[in-house]
Write a structure and sequence with these properties.
YitT, UPF0750_membrane, membrane, cell membrane, YitT family protein
Length: 203
């Protein structure tokens, strides 16, 4: 009996809008829970958080500014379409982290549950962005660049960067908080490492 395989179809414009909006929103909820717990995280968001904790400046504003230099690398390797989508995702996340606290607050959350939930929320958000040709800039762009060029997983690139960032975080947060935070980063990066594979998904 002969079977007919359904050909893969690339995402359309509406698909990309939905995917980028979903990814940005899920990530912003993860960031909101993260700041509620006083946790830190990796990647560019983690760097922005450390600066925000140390200075009192708005996370959204710091995150948006930090990402600007990385767009050059994204433009050079992935082209203007990727950069434009990433710029929109970063801008949406920055805006939502400023707006969401007026509409969403958290009560008591066990740090283990919070760490895993943060990793799942941000991991799902980043996967959606990656699959729609976008990212949250910064180390995400570097990770995708290295994965595309060498095959070394983007999740591992981010995990290495995170390890260095968490060592720095020990100067601003107590070891227990940093340990719970690192659990969240591991969940996030393992989610990306296991699920972001071109041989399993074609966009």
């Amino acid at each position: 009996m002969q079977t007919t395989e359904t050909p893969y179809q690339k995402h359309g414009f509406i698909d990309d809008i939905q995917g980028i909006a979903f990814g940005s929103f899920m990530s912003s909820v993860g960031v909101l829970l993260l700041t509620h717990m006083g946790f830190v995280t990796g990647q560019t968001a983690g760097l922005a958080l450390l600066i925000s904790y140390a200075t009192g400046w708005s996370f959204g504003l710091v995150f948006f500014i930090i990402n600007i230099p990385f767009y050059w690398l994204g433009w050079k390797r992935f082209g203007p379409r990727f950069v434009a989508k990433s710029f929109v995702a970063v801008a949406m996340l920055s805006a939502m982290t400023l707006i969401l606290p007026s509409y969403l607050q958290f009560g008591a959350v066990h740090p283990a549950v919070a760490a895993v939930l943060i990793g799942c929320l941000c991991g799902a958000g980043l996967l959606a962005l990656f699959r729609h040709g976008s990212s949250l800039g910064g180390i995400g762009i570097v990770g995708l660049y290295i994965q595309d060029a060498t095959g070394f997983k983007a999740g591992w690139v981010q995990l290495i960067f995170d390890a260095v960032l968490f060592l720095i975080a020990l100067t601003l947060r107590d070891p227990t908080t940093v340990a719970w935070s690192f659990l969240g980063a591991v969940v996030l990066n393992m989610t990306i490492t296991i699920n972001h594979r071109k041989d399993r998904y074609i966009a």
